[in-house]
Specification:
The structure is a homodimer. With about 325 residues, the first copy, chain A, is an alpha+beta fold. The first copy, chain A, has 10 helices and 11 strands. The longest helix of chain A has 19 residues. The radius of gyration of chain A is 20 Å and the shape is globular. The two termini of chain A are about 40 Å apart.
Chain lengths: ~325, ~325
């Protein structure tokens, strides 16, 4: 199968919203009047962002999901995406699964595949995603203010737990692993929540590299610091704890929550007066939102226990080149 | 050096035109009223799109140039681009050269780097480029009509000649190789010509995989065929012929021109009544435009010699999966 046949067979869809879809030198998009175009790009590499054994349909889902998560963090509505794909060989079963998983998520969000590129080479998936957001209303990292609450959507740490089971550093009951594996392989981008938080949240980011590191980006952009309640944070993990008397287990869970990575939840800030509005937005979006701390003027992140006592922080964020 | 330091050091630029540049979850673009956004993405893989020994500054130039060439083919003015980069290691000399070459070309076209992604992995460069074009004025592949002239900008075949010298299948005088190597490593995207052809050309494409294949895409989209004068086409090669009595040399040159690949010239069609307008657009853009054939109603491409006699066609286009 040649390059053009491959594209036509697995990836070509007629343009619905786009002025011009795939098949020309460029795709054409026409943002609605008053709208800004939000753009994000993510590259996924085998062995680093996904295991070679992953179900291709789940990989297709995840490759688009991590991009939609960036749109969610800006409060943008997904419009379209491009896909560049480097493949070691033409594996039709893999392509069928990959495109099916990806396009199912795309359809669920009304996000059209409008163009792309395919080549032979080590497996690499690069998606660039486009969304629209009313001018001036995008959620940015720079708007957090001292006194704001710090919130997190959904659950944290489970994807990392699944990864550690795959790596063999940990074993958990099969049911716990299956649920955590779903979180790792089929993350849910919080698109509806991001859109619902426009005008409510003062800052937002998607948690992809780990909570501490990603909240750190918000704080750096906002010239602020934060206090995080470690007890509230660790309660965000869906997987149940092991032996309650096992201190190493509790320590590991805190690490997964604070610096696990691959969560694709939203961390966001909002004034205390907006607590009902945040709860309403979360309910409307069908996802839990949990208050885990507060923005403070002093730089840095201070972890406390439930009684407000400092907790020693030993967890760094995931950095691809650290 | 960590991922974020790397981005800040080599790739961060303040946003000039973009509503929001790199450093948040998304970049924000605000196309001017009446404008459509043209989008294209290209992925470059070591060993397939470039040699591992290439000067990193030239590679940075080329990685962006092949994307700008797609905008040129649509008649779009470059606005911005995103860069996703997978690197086997952090090589500061390589990054310095690569970013310098890329950003120099970007600056020359007023095209801002607004976002990106970096990861560790086999070397892979994925750029997505954004341009603007007045609504309804983009040059498409589908507008060629029987009777239209077929034009090509600049020169063809020289990049392939240089590649064959690198491959060791051919040897040429040093001066000929140096010039051809520049065409291969530092292609010039025909952005000004593409914009000048709006309202003049009926269809356009950039010649990246080889003339016959790329003109074939125009013909397929336009439901038409073409006659190409092989003599006029072969004269598009800048490198001088070798021994005129060497039939294999002439045959090889024709192959390089018809199916060499990596040319990044524009092939376009326009009615015969627009010849002066095409010449004016080319002069304004500072590049040669050569008439090499005509669009015909019958499907397929017919090669003729200068006297209109059929020439046997044995040249396929470059296909990454053929």
């Amino acid at each position: 199968m040649g390059e053009f046949d491959l594209i036509a067979r697995y990836f070509h869809r007629p343009a619905v919203h786009a002025a011009l879809g795939g098949g020309d030198d460029c795709a054409l998009l026409q943002p609605a009047p008053g709208m800004q175009l939000a753009i994000s790009t993510d590259m996924l590499v085998e062995g680093r962002h996904f295991l070679s054994t992953v179900d291709p349909a789940r990989l297709g889902h995840k490759a688009l999901a991590v991009n939609l998560s960036d749109l969610a963090a800006c409060g943008a509505r997904p419009l379209a995406f491009t896909l560049a794909l480097s493949l070691p060989q033409v594996d039709t079963a893999w392509l069928e699964g990959f495109s099916r998983g990806m396009l199912a998520l795309a359809d669920a969000h009304g996000c059209e595949l409008v163009g792309g590129d395919t080549t032979r080479g080590p497996l690499n998936i690069c998606i660039t995603v486009f969304g629209e957001v009313p001018r001036g209303q995008a959620l940015l990292r720079s708007g957090a203010r001292p006194g704001d609450d710090l919130w997190v959507s959904g659950s944290l740490g489970d994807a990392r737990l699944a990864l550690e089971v795959f790596r063999g550093t940990l074993s958990v009951p099969a049911g716990v692993f299956d649920a955590a594996r779903l979180r790792m392989e089929l993350p849910t981008p919080r698109v509806a929540l991001g859109a619902a938080l426009r005008g409510i949240a003062t800052a937002a980011i998607d948690v992809s590299d780990g909570l501490l590191g990603d909240v750190g980006h918000v704080l750096a952009a906002s010239n602020a610091g934060a206090r995080i309640d470690a007890t509230a944070a660790v309660a965000l993990m869906s997987a149940p704890p092991g032996d309650p008397s096992d201190g190493a287990d509790a320590e590991r869970r805190l690490g997964f929550v604070l610096a696990g990575g691959d969560d694709y939840e939203l961390a966001f800030t909002a004034p205390p007066g907006a607590r009902d509005a945040v709860a309403g937005a979360a309910e409307q979006a069908g996802v839990r939102a949990t208050r885990i701390g507060q923005i403070e003027a002093a730089p840095g992140i201070r972890l406390t226990d439930a009684d407000g006592r400092p907790v020693v922080q030993r967890h760094a964020s995931f950095d691809h080149f650290a």
